[in-house]
Amino acid sequence: GVSRTNCSELHEIRMYSVLLFTLLSLPSSAHVLPRTKGRTDDKLPHILFILLDDYGWSNAGWHRPGFDDVQTPNMDKMVKEGIELDQHYVYKYCSPTRCAIQSGRNPIHVNIVNSSPVFLNKDDPISGFAGIPRNMTGIATIMKSAGYKTHFAGKWDAGVATYDHTPRGRGYDSSLHYWSHGNDYWTQLAWPKCNGNFMVNLWHTKEDAGQGPAYGYNSTCESVDVNITGEGCKGGPNGDHWYGGYEDSLFEQFVLEKIGGHDTSEPLFMFWAPHAVHVPLEVPKEYLDKFNFIENDTKNKTRQTYAAMTNFADATIGNVTDLLKEKGMWNDTIVVFSADNGGPMGDTNGASNYPLRGMKGSNFQGGVRVNAFVSGGYLPEKVRGTKFDGLVTGWDWYATFADLVGVDPTDKRAAAAGLPPIDSVSIADVIMGRTSRSLRTEIALATGPCLVKDQPDYEHACLLPGKYKNYHINGLIREDGLKMLIGTHAGAGWPGPVYPNSTSTECFSPGIGDSTCVLKCTPACFFNITADPEEREELSKTLPTSTINSMLSRLDEIQETAFYPDRGTSDPAACDAALNKYNGFLGPFA
User: Fold this and answer.
1) What integer is the mean pLDDT of 546-561?
2) pLDDT grade, residue 122 (50/70/90)?
3) Closest CA to 113 of 532, 564, 541
4) How far is CA 42 from CA 35, 38, 168, 273, in A?
5) pLDDT of residue 192
6) How far apart are CA 450 and CA 465, in angstroms?
7) Which of 448, 444, 447 is nearest to 476 (CA)?
8) Are 409 and 106 in contact (CB under 8 A)?
């Protein structure tokens, strides 16, 4: 691959020219307001949102200084120059978090399941699909109403059934993305299987034209069974030529090209969702070899591979921020970084949430409290190098961005369709240094249906008792640090400081029947996550009855607002479209 030490060489390889395009129709719900939350010079900020996949708490360098396994120098620097968000929460796994961020809603009001992307319920033309209901307004549409150029790169996982569900349908001018929970980094193949073969999961939306399969961007490999380092693979004619067809390099190039060709007089909104560090654990050889020093690893070297993938992702972030500086855009840029959930743990995953309890798929802190920060030259000097410990959620960025650019975030289109309103709470005043207190007073911890047949394994990580059996919420966090969990929870252990390793146990298996460490709450367990962030001391026997009853009552109130439509089942039309319309690529089918 090409050396990544010289960013100017990298982003000059393939630059797009600045393209003219017709603006998408804007929703009636978005109208411009007087701007009071941005900088005093009234210049709209460029916004770069980076959403890293399955990123463990202790796989971030700023949480493990001096630990050689973790090398994230670019992100570490951005944390030091920005605001570390110490209590930033998301849903416990992929698709619901992504739907929440794009729609500005707690997952309990948009999507709480990782269903197959090709689910369809023909009886419900608004919500009978995987992902975001079609009548909800996306954050990119809000940004376009303020005059932004909008682009998306990476993992979408927020719907595919109709063109309304695509990034273009949600307000993005261009995109290069895959649709579902994951695909192969080297082949770009993913489920579903059609006629016995996996389909290519890669889609391209052109800024000046239409959208369709990303022909020529996907890689070719000598076999569909590739090894970790992609031996025998090469990028397509429009694809990655730096690392032999590696998908995250392809997305990096797309981001660099869009920034490189951007007219800096116009505001930019770039949403970048790398594949890293989700399974399958795959990475270019030169990065894997950098971590050959790691010892006491699992038999498949998952800790080494995960460390290499994290380092690769950090390098791509460094290249992008370097380009923003070279283009003279950095001083007008806000960068928001978040993981989509806590790290998935166990011998096959490689992540660690040390010292937090739990994993991806659980509502312990290790599953929902994630690595996050805000950085960029747009931030005022007084907030740089600070840590904010107020409650923030992934869906709060919807109202925050709307606040910064002077747009009303109210989703009138959703209201007209009878859909839930946004739950987003702006922290614009926090990041602009006008307050040190979050306006968010609580976080409802939603859950997909527990122990339901045909759901992913991590749906089996909880069991709700009695009247809570059909609840879609099983936890609550208050601003004073008191946290409540309902029912039985798998993966209720704590990883050691070096994890995973050659002696890792099955504590972090996602299913209750497989996990060796289960917490049973009858009906509720309580923790003070301010005084006890590792959730080691259970408080139900010491709390006042009035406090317990108050939180249980609040849980009941929120459950009354739960949104849980019938999204249907896998529809054969998806394979029909993939085989007969898109030449082996997954795409809209309904």
Assistant:
1) 98
2) very high
3) 564
4) 7, 7, 28, 29
5) 87
6) 10
7) 444
8) no
Measured between alpha carbons, how far is 429 from 529 in angstroms, rounded to an integer?
25
Among 513, 477, 474, 516, which residue's Cα sits nearest to residue 493?
A: 516
Residue 197 carries which side chain, given as an amino acid letter?
Answer: N
Summarize the chain as % helix, strand, coil (round to 5). 25, 20, 55
Sequential DSSP letters for 333-353: EEEEEEESSPPP-STTT----
- Average pLDDT of span 86-90: 98
Which parts of 465-516 fold into alpha helices (H)? Answer: none
Question: Of 443, 452, 492, 455, whose CA–CA distance to 471 is shortest?
Answer: 452
Q: Which amino acid is at 7?
A: C
- Residue 278 has phi, psi (to 5 degrees) of -70, 155
Residue of 78, 155, 163 whose CA lies nearest to 129: 163
**Based on C-alpha coordinates, what's the Rg of the chain?**
22
Which stretches within 73-173 are classed as H helix?
73-80, 94-103, 139-144
CA–CA gap between residue 166 and residue 178 (Å, rounded): 10
The reported pLDDT for the residue numbered 21 is 30
Looking up tokens 């972090």, which residue turns up?
Answer: 508
List, in order, residues 6 or more apart from 24 with CB less than 8 Å away: 141, 144, 168, 171, 173
What is the structure's pLDDT at 540? 97
Number of residues that make up the chain: 590
CB-based contact 265:278 (threshold 8 Å): no
Tokens, residue 294: 């790691």
Three-state SS at 486? strand
**β-pairing, 119-120 with 569-570?**
antiparallel
Please choose, from the candidates 274, 253, 255, 48, the residue with its C-alpha nearest in 3D space to the C-alpha of residue 143: 48
Sign of dihedral through CA atoms 531, 534, 540, 545?
Answer: positive
Q: Which single residue is written with the structure tokens 């070279």?
A: 326
For residue 483 the two structure tokens come to 């946290």
- Which pLDDT does position 411 carry in this prediction? 98
CA 392 – CA 104 distance, rounded (Å): 12
Please provide the distance, in angstroms rounded to a whole number, between the alpha carbons at the two ends of the chain.
Answer: 40
Question: Residue 7: is its pLDDT beyond 50?
Answer: no
Place of tokens 């993938």: 309
